[in-house]
Amino acid sequence: MKTKHTPGPWEIKIHDKGPYFTEVEVWHQNYGRIAIMPDNTSIWNSDKNEAAAKAALSETIANAKLIAAAPELLEACRIALRCSGLLDPRFQVHYKVVKDAIKKATS
Q1: Distance set, CA 100 to CA 26, 37, 65, 103 (Å)
Q2: Looking at residue 27, what is its pLDDT?
Q3: DSSP output for 26-94
Q4: What pLDDT is attached to residue 1?
Q5: Which of 79, 70, 69, 72 is nearest to 99 (CA)?
Q6: With contact defined as beta carbons under 8 Å apart, do 84 and 90 qualify?
Q7: Residue ranges of domains in the chain
Q8: Strand partners, 36
Q9: Residue 63: which of 6, 16, 95, 25 has the closest Cα?
């Protein structure tokens, strides 16, 4: 199936810009930047709260990893939708979740 999004794989790049500023990007080798994540660590600049800044950066990196996995996750959903097991009435709720996720990603 032809997709409208930049094909995978996507990766993350982390650029350390100093103790309280780190830039996190989702990147494609041939197409360049897919997304740039907001620097959640900068909100702690005024307090110089290193623990809070590290926690914010950890969350930002986790979000970037989830975004970077999007092409593979979409393909996994498409494969799961084709599995005959999801047609079993016991799994209708799972079928709907997968179908809704594909719709959200492609609509």
Answers
A1: 24, 25, 21, 5
A2: 93
A3: EEETTTEEEEEE--GGGGGTTTT-HHHHHHHHHHHHHHHHHHHTHHHHHHHHHHHHH-GGGGSGGGHHH
A4: 56
A5: 79
A6: no
A7: 1-68, 70-107
A8: 25
A9: 25
Give the whole-angstrom CA distance, residue 30 versus residue 41.
29
* 13-70 pLDDT per residue, tens: 988 876 667 789 999 999 999 999 876 666 555 566 777 777 888 888 999 999 999 9
**How wide is the angle at C-alpha 1 spanned by C-alphas 97 and 103, nearest 5°?**
25
Residue 21: C-alpha distances to residues 30, 48, 54, 59, 72 (Å): 27, 11, 10, 14, 30
85's tokens: 């097991």
What is the pTM (predicted TM-score) of this model?
0.79
Q: Write the pLDDT tens digit of every residue in 2-25.
A: 668 898 999 999 888 766 677 899
